[in-house]
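Hi V.,

You were right to ask for the full record rather than a summary. Here it is.
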Amino acid sequence: MKTYDPDKTTKEVRQGNRRLMNLRVLVYAIIGIVVAFALIYLWFAVFAPGGSAA
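Predicted structure:
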């Protein structure tokens, strides 16, 4: 890939991220969503009328 900035590497020109911050954000978001749904499920399971928790 041709670049006009002599200080940038090929990876920087392609906007690559060596520290994989995008992957970290994706993984943390998925874990957060799973935990949120688990808490919501437990909340409704514990306070269900006439039943006992799982």
